Amino acid sequence: MKILIADDEAVSRKVLESRLRKWGYDVMVASDGVEAWEALQGPDAPDLAILDWEMPGMDGIEVCRRVRQQVRESYVYLLLLTSKSRGEDIVAGMEAGADDYIAKPFDANELKVRLRAGRRILDLVAELVRAREMLADKATHDSLTGLWNRGAILETLAHEMARADREGMPLGVILGDLDFFKRVNDTHGHLAGDAVLREAARRMLSVRRSYDAVGRYGGEEFLVITPGCGLELACGVGERIRAAIAAEPMNIAEGLVPVTMSLGATCYRPRGRATPESLVKAADEAMYRAKANGRDRVEAGEVEP
Fold it and tell me: For the chain (length 305 residues), average pLDDT per consecutive 10?
């Protein structure tokens, strides 16, 4: 773990640095509060800092206060090193944002224990952040395919329509449905169907542009949002997806399964009267025309301007 030491007394700083390195810490050193504050702003900032209370330029209390005023993703554990022993001084330090304090001259065993407590706190914070990220991912992604789920892809559509209005650019919307998917489930079982859906999602992602959004709309239906695409370009993206799906049979545990997809594409024109619902409806109607016209094809659909 990386630790920042900020102390303007060279001897004290050297003793502390030597002790921390002996314990296996990666140590950064600052000789005053200004250097400490700058180090805590860097891209490789430490998660734990030992700050001398009294330093030129900016004291440890002010560094604590500034750190706590920031909105940061990662937590910084702040330990004040001080010769002050009055209760009101300690309270002032903690209210400024310090997590703990240790008296100067420090006792090595006491410092080790307090650092161990700080590391436990940081580990707990990291676990909470990971748990929050996992919950956020589950709330917006389809658990089977890893694509955006229905709610998230529709929210993306609304955001992209607003952006299209601001930038004066068209927006393509594509709805695709795997052909005869029920036959896959009936013939090979639902686990095979799940494998086909995952492989279809992988192939769709492999041919999309980096800024296109792909979501599982429901069942074997997929919704694709293509910023900057008029109707012709949206149909071109749909054709790439169709070709990727049909290129070769899907190799799943149950064997080789040939799969095709029918797609409908439409286009939102900036500051038009279309809504997310009307765009999906137009793409859906075009997709059903593709089904009626033989499947494994892309059809264009116009939406109310």
Answer: 90 90 92 91 88 89 90 85 71 84 85 91 89 84 95 96 95 98 93 96 95 96 97 96 97 93 96 92 97 97 81
- DSSP-derived pairing of the beta strands 77-82 and 100-103: parallel
For 6-18, b/e burial (b = at least 16 CB within 10 A) is bbbeeebbeebbe
Which residue in the list 35, 160, 220, 299 is annotated as catalytic?
A: 220
**What's the CATH code of the domain at 227?**
3.30.70.270
In a domain, 305, yes or no: no
Report the number of distinct structural domains present in the chain.
2
Considering the entire predicted model, what is its pTM? 0.66
Domain span at residue 166 reads 150-300
First to last CA, the chain: 59
Is 220 an annotated catalytic residue? yes
